[in-house]
Design goal:
Chain A: It is found in: Cell membrane. Chain A: One of its GO terms (biological process) is transmembrane transport. Chain A: It comes from Vineibacter terrae. The complex is a heterodimer. Helices cover 73% and strands 0% of the residues of chain A. Chain A is mainly alpha-helical. Chain A has a single domain, classed as MetI-like fold. In chain A, helix 3 runs parallel beside helix 6 and helix 4 crosses helix 6. The radius of gyration of chain A is 24 Å and the shape is globular. Chain B is an all-alpha fold. Chain B folds into two domains: 50 residues; 229 residues, MetI-like (MetI-like fold). In chain B, 79% of the residues lie in helices and 0% in strands. The chains are: A mainly alpha, B mainly alpha. Chains A and B meet through helix 1, helix 3, helix 4, helix 5 and helix 6 of A and helix 2, helix 5, helix 6, helix 7 and helix 8 of B.
């Protein structure tokens, strides 16, 4: 590359460098603290002087009282995320098939209510939801999180499925009907195969929503063995002398699975409500 | 098939219902149940508890409340506008067709892809006044005693805004990249033929096409920013002395001191800001849906 060409593109390189630094700095910081010896998490160095996996060994071996339930909490997070994804799909498929394919009278109202619920931030539904979960006797049980997360994810599911199914020609259903298919057979053999990519996107969305949720988990789960990983990480903050190296290592372990899932399914994730809506 | 039809015909006691109608109703039931038990009832009950005059009186007499309103206004106005302007600018960068830029966009999305707790906690530790990396380096390189980033209201709010932008910037940049890619290329080509300047290209081609998606994005982003609990709570915890609370965190603050009704009153106070935006967005989004 010639010098003039390099100089011409220099502003681009500078923007690129700034973007990379801005994005990676907090993540790099997380990793170097996680890799520091527990007593040396004082960060005055950009390049760490000593690197160790000791924090990860401590966590995976549950050898510190703040991480003694790590595996249980990992299991709780996984269970809640997977069940939330499955139930969101069941609720969403049922509602969308009913509204868009079976033409439920008043279906449009349901879609609009779903959109309304989706647009109101979850933080403002947390208090009433917490109180009600107490009345239902779900507090401190996985069901409280599962139902809360399905409640938050289902409106998004219905709205996105509504947009996707609007693109499926209705003639397909009619052809199947003429062949004598029942509604359930149309669901099984026409609707689901064509909607598969949307189902993947919705399932992953609900899975990540539940795994990443902090506020609801922090309100509704309280005993250590019932916690998911997100509020368990928050507990570190309650201690003045929080073992930050351990906390960062636990944070890295917690962040890894959803990040991998996101990148694996990235082509399904772009789109959805906002991209579709904002493009128009 | 026939057997199923006969069952269906026998099932509704009074009126004969078509099989389609039966399934249409049966399949909507799960969502209706979820909605009734976990939205209608909690919201109705919560608002009923929070709407008493006594709760509002307690809330309005709490000096924290006015601070919280200010904080919320600053947080939302600054975070949303800064983020969207930067995203608009960056979207011009990310549509360029260089391989390294495409790879950079994969890295860039990382902040959005990963859960927010670990990254917020990392930033919190980075800005710890005594042991954090930022103040240590400030001292090492420039012999400056760095400020108490998280123990002073203005720095706390500023960092919360930065954390919020760090997390959500990639998302909005990608949305605006999509909007830019929808602009027909030949418009720019003919502008080049006419000798248009960069500013004229932006002013007369890019902006007219981007205005509607930009406005929708600003609205949606405002709603989400108003509801951002994590960026404040995990960074400053609303402190010091509740000076960095926002409406999204205030409810939880009252819940923790066992004043659920005052917390609900705080939630109700956010509604006049949220609901107009929600209804406006619903109109816009439904239009897109029909088109």
């Amino acid at each position: 590359m010639t010098v003039t060409r390099f100089l011409e593109r220099l502003p681009l390189y500078l923007v690129g460098l700034a973007v990379a630094l801005w994005t990676l700095l907090p993540i790099y910081h997380l990793l170097i603290i996680a890799l520091s010896p527990p007593d040396k998490a004082v960060a005055g160095d950009i390049i760490p002087q000593a690197v160790t996996l000791q924090n990860f060994v401590t966590i995976l071996g549950s050898r510190h009282n703040l991480v003694q339930n790590f595996w249980t909490q990992l299991w709780n997070s996984t269970l809640i995320a997977v069940v939330t994804a499955v139930l969101t799909l069941v609720v969403g498929i049922g509602a969308n098939f009913s509204i868009s394919r079976l033409r439920l009278p008043g279906g449009r109202i349901v879609t609009n209510i779903a959109l309304l619920t989706y647009l109101i931030p979850a933080a403002f539904l947390a208090l009433p939801m917490y109180r009600t979960m107490g009345q239902y006797g779900f507090l401190d049980k996985p069901w409280s999180m599962i139902f809360a997360m399905v409640t938050l994810a289902a409106p998004y599911a219905i709205w996105v499925m509504n947009q996707a199914s609007a693109k499926l020609p209705y003639e397909l259903d009619e052809a199947a009907r003429i062949d004598g298919a029942t509604p359930l057979q149309i669901l099984r053999f026409v609707y689901l195969p064509l909607m598969a990519p949307t189902m993947v996107a919705i399932g992953i969305y609900a899975l990540l929503l539940a795994w990443n949720e902090y506020l609801y988990a922090f309100l509704m789960l309280s005993t250590e063995r019932q916690l998911t990983l997100a509020p368990a990480l928050g507990i570190f903050l309650a201690f003045d002398d929080a073992p930050w190296a351990l906390m960062m290592a636990a944070g890295a372990l917690y962040a890894l699975p959803p990040t991998l899932v996101y990148y694996l399914f990235r082509r399904y994730m772009v789109g959805g409500l906002t991209a579709g809506a904002v493009k128009g | 098939m026939t057997a199923v039809t006969m069952d269906m015909a026998a099932a509704p006691p009074r009126k004969r219902m078509s099989e389609e109608m039966f399934w249409a109703i049966a399949l909507i039931v799960p969502y209706v149940v979820v909605f009734a038990f976990f939205v209608v009832y909690p919201v109705g009950y919560g608002f009923w508890l929070g709407s008493g005059a006594a709760s509002f009186k307690k809330l309005f007499q709490d000096p924290i409340f006015v601070t919280t309103l200010w904080n919320t206004a600053i947080f939302v106005l600054v975070a949303v506008n800064l983020k969207m302007v930067v995203a608009l600018g960056l979207s011009a960068f990310f549509i360029l067709e260089f391989r390294w830029i495409r790879w950079l966009s994969v890295v860039f999305i990382l902040a959005w892809a990963m859960p927010s707790i670990p990254s917020i906690l990392s930033i919190r530790w980075m800005f710890n006044p005594e042991w954090g990396m930022v103040n240590n380096l400030l001292f090492k390189w420039f012999q400056i005693e760095g400020p108490g980033w998280l123990t002073e209201r203005h720095y706390g709010l500023m960092l919360a805004i930065l954390v919020h932008i760090w997390k959500s910037l990639p998302f909005w940049t990608l949305i605006l990249v999509a909007a830019r890619l929808a602009i027909p290329r030949d418009l720019y080509e003919s502008a080049d033929v006419d000798g248009a300047t960069r500013w004229q290209r932006f002013r007369f081609i890019t902006w007219p096409a981007m205005r509607a998606p930009y406005l929708t994005s600003v609205l949606l982003s405002s709603i989400w920013t108003l509801g951002d609990f994590n960026s404040i709570y995990l960074l400053t915890g609303g402190g010091p002395n509740d000076s960095t609370q926002v409406l999204a965190t205030l409810g939880v603050r009252y819940l923790r001191i066992d004043q659920f009704d005052v917390g609900m009153a705080a939630v109700i106070c956010a509604m006049p800001a949220i609901l107009p935006m929600v209804f406006f967005l619903m109109k816009r989004l439904s239009k897109v849906d029909e088109a």
